[in-house]
Amino acid sequence: MQLGFVSAILADLSLEEVLAFAADEGFSCVEVMCWPPGKSDRRYAGVTHLDVSRFNEEQAKKIRNLIRLHGVRISGLGYYPNPLNSDLTHRQTVCDHLKKVIAAAPLLGVNVVNTFIGRDHRRSIDENISLLREVWPPLVQHAEACGVRIGIENCPMLFTGDEWPGGKNLHVSPALWRRIFNELGSNNIGLNYDPSHLVWQHIDYVRCIREFGERIVHVHAKDTRIDEDKLYEHGILGLGWHTPKIPGLGDVRWGQVFSALTDVGYRGPVCIEVEDRAFEGSLEDRKRSLRQSKRFLEQFTS
User: Fold this and answer.
1) How is residue 268 annotated by DSSP?
2) With the CA atoms of 114, 296, 222 and 108 taken in that order, what torsion angle do they form, in degrees rounded to the nearest 10?
3) What does the pLDDT read at residue 302?
4) Which of 86, 136, 281, 289 has its CB 3.0 to 4.6 Å from that of 285, i.e. a possible disulfide?
5) Cβ proximity of 71 and 30 under 8 Å
6) What's residue 197's pLDDT?
7) Domain with 15 in it
């Protein structure tokens, strides 16, 4: 497995600076964020380390040269919007950009694009499945034509009471993974596996690996700490009782995760995703979070 990180945590650095940092710290790969330039609407979104808006072979050649120069590969291109947004204009905008991200990948020798399925949180699951049938087949066909596998992350995107209980991403549980994979009927749709979101849903994240191993195209290494006092006070129907942490500082049993990944034959990238507020004070803090995470995870990947 190749140990890397998600570039969103180094939003204030250029792609060349991100790759140089990765090389200096001994990382093998980086998942590169490809949001369209502009203002973000939430934390860790809106990061544009690679602008694919008008991407061409000349630009791709420059990026390939940077990759060769630093000896750090791109594990995947990342863009995490809501393709099933209820606003039709917004939905079309994000789907158009997602197609551009998919088209850019093979120009860079990259065969994975990570994203969300999306969800209209005001509609039922069945209604969202109907919406998925309208929106996703053209995206899947585009990915197949480009030779790209799409890694759907399993984050519920649930932040406020207004989004309860569904959140803004449908791809959150084994039952829905099976249903979505069956609906889309393509081997080019896979799983960007992140155990942290499964911990607080009380889903067996190790069993998930063993069942869906052949679908895993990318892995995010993020941890979660369950606040037992808040859970006692508010129960599972409340919010704020689970906190994103860097690997090793939460409740994920990483030895079991890597044991299962090796058992199913996964040999791909494992990218540290930092969303830990304890390390957001400065650029040096964010770099330190990556160094600390790397030291912890190397016991399982070296």
Assistant:
1) S
2) -10
3) 75
4) 281
5) no
6) 95
7) 2-301
The CB density around residue 161, as the number of other CB atoms within 10 Å, is: 10
- Secondary structure (H, E, C), 192-228: EECHHHHHCCCCCHHHHHHHHHHHEEEEEECEEEECH
The rounded distance, in Å, linking the Cα atoms of 172 and 295 is 29
β-pairing, 112-115 vs 189-193, is unpaired
Distance between CA atoms of residues 4 and 147, nearest Å:
23
∠ CA 201-202-207, rounded to 5°? 110
Please provide the average confidence, as pLDDT, over all residues in the chain.
95
Give the global pTM.
0.95
**What does pLDDT average to in each consecutive run of 10 residues of the chain (302 residues)?**
97 97 98 90 84 95 97 98 96 97 98 97 95 98 98 89 81 97 97 96 97 98 95 83 94 98 98 96 97 97 83
SS3 47: coil
As for how many domains the chain has, the answer is 1
- Residue 230 belongs to domain with CATH number: 3.20.20.150
